[in-house]
């Protein structure tokens, strides 16, 4: 087997003074290459992602962490040999280790005997001793960051994980680390210290001895909860000194854990024969011996499908998801060989199972599309299906993931709750379905969500805006890929900030809920009043109070009634509404009073950006028609799923896929798509439209506009 991947078009020929030979992997921070120094020394060069490089906070932390990591000089470490934190992009080079990741070894050959685990523990403790002596904390010790080489194990990626914390690739309050290997004090919000590395070491030793982590499997938050509050499962460790020592490493109180010096003293004698491979299980030793170090051809033609745009690096970067440069971004689950190549452990099996670089037959991964593919609203489902197919086709044509082939699974619910459960069950019953785009409506989501949750299957809706599902146990795997109604209300309030406005609802529960969100935002900046139907009185108030604008929260026909009442009372200010008014009937039935309305909507018009226009071109070429209102957002949701699942690797199951999708972030056609800890939307806001000459004219992201009377 080989740890290398062929270079692709767009990969650098040189980084600093190093000649790039092959790819090693990718991760949350960037891509990793095998390179050669001018004197012929092999190194692993990590090139930082462009979006991280643009963050000055990241650059500052990265420079400090590189400086600290350079002070580490221990036998069982892969030290930093060169770096340019100020480069464009920044990069660092470490000693290349031709080793087998521990997670791959355990996955392929099973748990280790006690003597091998003790020897491993002694070496890792010595590595941590050197790291801590340099004033560095690893922060992300896990099986994929331990390489088994012919002359002993190596700890890689120490210290650098802090640099990514607090950037826009991590959610507010996110914890850097891997579930099952994060110390309880970090999970409770305290900083990472040497004792946290000791906790992670204990978890790594449990993994080596048993094939799984000490806190079991499950979703990330479940594993983290057990790590923080429940005792470690050490029942499969042999009785005696090893179980006692590992148990102390896994104490919840960091003060009760042993120091690395004690671990070296108690385990170091077992590491005496590391230079020879007889400390390893026989099958693992054979794999380490036969690991191939010959790189593939230096560079081959890319099969990536690109659009005709201006050339150069800036042009390539501008393609974003449309060219499917599918690398992981901030989820810690990148595939790699372990030389800094990502490879985050899932917490479900203690390690990635796809890092040996081998390809073989591609694994088929299906993405289900649940929506009204037939029936009265088939135009919506048809656009959803076409958008997901486009994303899948681009991913397959890109050649970036030859070990995976994506397919589309059609789950037609006809847009009704009665048929939604059968559609969801069909997707669940196909074991190759790892994620779902949909459902399209609140009613169908209400019916299908509990089924997907029970099956551990991620369901990401690009259309459902009802806020009712977030954080609910029965909808644990439901993720929202579109701003919810409360967020839309806050966007309306933000648009009107600084003005004098009256917020009028139609007395319906949805209308009142939307109005509440508008008012909550206006309380922070602006002058407002709140009124409800009947509209005659509300309109009279708007005129007498000489407000700048009226924000209406309610249905399309009620908006028309209010507009007539305002006109009849002599109101001459502006009117602002929400998604409910974005229908052709508003323009036709109420054409006399609809002109000039500002409307905040989660629809996306592809004409507002260069990325949107390129997407529309691709969509039209593939389907012979223009994209629909929700096509671009559906495409972005599918792109996010593809990126996340590709990062999780070919062996990912539904739990691992959900964790990857839930933690992923995508800068897509419609902007940033991301999720909060409850699965609710945490990306860019909705769009602003205005009725001009009887048409909905797109203006762009509402956050780019502030209303001026």
Verbal overview:
There is one protein chain. The chain has 709 residues and is α/β, with parallel strands linked by helices. The protein folds into four domains: 1-96, Phosphorylase Kinase, domain 1 (2-Layer Sandwich); 99-293, Transferase(Phosphotransferase) domain 1 (Transferase(Phosphotransferase), domain 1, Orthogonal Bundle); 363-483 and 607-678, Rossmann fold (3-Layer(aba) Sandwich), CATH 3.40.50.2300; 485-601 and 690-704, Rossmann fold (3-Layer(aba) Sandwich), CATH 3.40.50. The chain is 36% helix and 17% strand. A seven-stranded mixed beta sheet has the order 16-15-17-18-19-22-23. A six-stranded antiparallel beta sheet has the order 1-2-3-4-6-5. Strands 11-10-12-13-14 form a five-stranded parallel beta sheet, with helices on both faces. Strand 15, helix 16 and strand 16 form a beta-alpha-beta unit.
